[in-house]
Amino acid sequence: MLAIPRRLPSFTSANHVMQKGSNLCFSTSPLTCAKLDVDFYFDTVSPYTWPAFEVLNRYKNRWELSIQYKPVFLGGLTSAATNPYLNTMAECPNKAAYQFMDLETRTAKFFNIPFKMKADPFNLIGVVGSLQQQRFITAVLQSNPHYMERVLRSFWIRSWSEDKDVHTAEDITAVGRSAGMDEEEITCCLAAMKTDPVKTALKAVTEEAVERGAFGAPTMFFHEDGENEEMFWGSDRFEMVAQIYNKEWIGPDPSK
Length: 256
Hints:
Elements: E1 17-20, E2 23-26, E3 36-42, H1 49-58, E4 65-71, H2 74-80, H3 85-91, H4 93-111, H5 121-128, H6 131-143, H7 148-160, H8 169-178, H9 183-192, H10 196-212, E5 219-224, E6 227-233, H11 238-244
């Protein structure tokens, strides 16, 4: 029997999308310089979240974009959302082979990121997991938020470009150093990640994501100061985001 959630989230905003019969009509207003907000639910264990992160940062100024970083524990999120994504990949070798090929060849080139497939991606995603990494990131967000972009990029590069571990204290220390954190800052965040405030915060944001309708990463909720909210999952919907919010889209890397 198909399990139906008790409450389905609403994913359409009437101010941007109008229903006409069976067709959805998107706004065709001129481009706007209005501020745009995004709640970015992410886990660095997710390779597809890396290109989404880079696009958001590349468009921060062009879209007057305010990014609210929302670290989640992907294992807990998918479990709560009853999304057995890892089992699905393991049970369908063709799907896994396609996704790994797509990431290493087309996605890396299209988004201009130095992605290289890990020798054993299932070990990181399904065995090692991301709890320690995400707790450290939560600690950084709480005490040193100005390091967030550099810390996140360092995690992805070390894990999904250099194929190195990222879960031990030594690994995380190397990530912090690469991001420009000093030894005292790293030590404080390593200590904080073991405390209840950090653990509780990560759990709360993960539950919040599921409550809002998330089932994987990356999940982004775009809105205009709380109005006209739209949910997007994945890293391949930015052209649609631009159309809905009347923003200019000139590709995943506008510097090229």
